[in-house]
Amino acid sequence: MTDLEQQVFSEVRAIIANEEQVIGRRAILVPLKKAIIADGDIRNVIDIVSADPALAAHLLWRCNCAMAPNVQPNRSLKDALVRLGQVNIYRYAFTFYLKERLDELPQPYRKLVQAYWRLTETIATETVDSLHQMQGVSIDADEVQTLALFSVFGQIIALTAFAYLNAEHEQCFPLSIIKNLIDTQQKSLTLGAFDALGLDDELQHEFMIAHNLRQTRDANSSGLVLRRILAQRELLLNPL
After folding, report:
1. What pLDDT does 157 receive?
2. Which long-range contacts (CB under 8 A, 24 or more apart) does 192-197 make?
3. What is the 3-state composition of the chain as percent helix, strand, coil, each rounded to the nearest 5?
4. How far lies 50's CA from each of 30, 81, 89, 217, 234, in Å?
5. Structure confidence at residue 40 (pLDDT)
6. What is the pLDDT at residue 71?
7. Taking burial as the number of CB atoms within 10 A of a residue's CB, which of 8, 73, 179, 201 is the most buried?
8. CA 87/CA 146 separation, integer angstroms
9. In angstroms, rounded to a whole number, what is the distance separating the alpha carbons of residues 201 and 72?
């Protein structure tokens, strides 16, 4: 790593650690996380989510996307949130506000990040479809979908942080630097982002299984379902 790459790497990691800058919409995420940590009444979570109609509609849509084709979709937000469980609610909310933040980035970063996001959505769809075709497993479809939405999390977060870094400097760093860092430091950037942004331990555990960074004998691991899709697309951090 060159001195310039090391400088950019350090500054990108510092920006990633600033959850408010990277994600935004703290008025919803902070109380939502507190309500989940408190493990209190689901009604508190419903009230927090309902404060943002766009988020509420998104969660209802996500919940129905994960359901098997022959299952009657949820029609009420309350039914959807009760079914999801608090951890999946937070993961969906996190990705919703992350995507909202990505749409605000300047070009060319917005175009690049949105390409990663389209890839993420495709992976999520393929992974849920793969789960529905499996027999003899007891895996929650929303856990699979929320995990899949973090498939290329490191690339998205690193590129987002780089966009903010260049916005802060009078002289922009060339895009080739972050491209090289994503290619060579993807694992470090990704795991650092998981730790810095306060995502749940189970999500990181299954992410590592999905990317073949950790092994499991659990046949009901959502990470194993995602691993097959990532392997097919040659996206594993640790190739098979």
Report:
1. 93
2. 192/13, 192/16, 192/17, 193/16, 193/153, 193/154, 193/157, 193/158, 194/153, 196/13, 196/16, 196/17, 196/19, 197/16, 197/19, 197/22, 197/23, 197/94, 197/157
3. 70, 0, 30
4. 15, 11, 12, 39, 39
5. 66
6. 67
7. 8
8. 10
9. 31
Query: In this predicted structure, what is the pLDDT of residue 74?
Result: 64
CB 49 within 8 A of CB 223: no
Residues of the chain with pLDDT under 50: none
Q: In this structure, what token pair is assigned to residue 128? A: 């849920």
Count of other CB atoms within 10 angstroms of residue 82 = 14
DSSP 173: P
Please give the single-letter amino acid code of residue 3.
D
Query: Who's near 2: CB < 8 A, 6+ residues apart?
Result: none
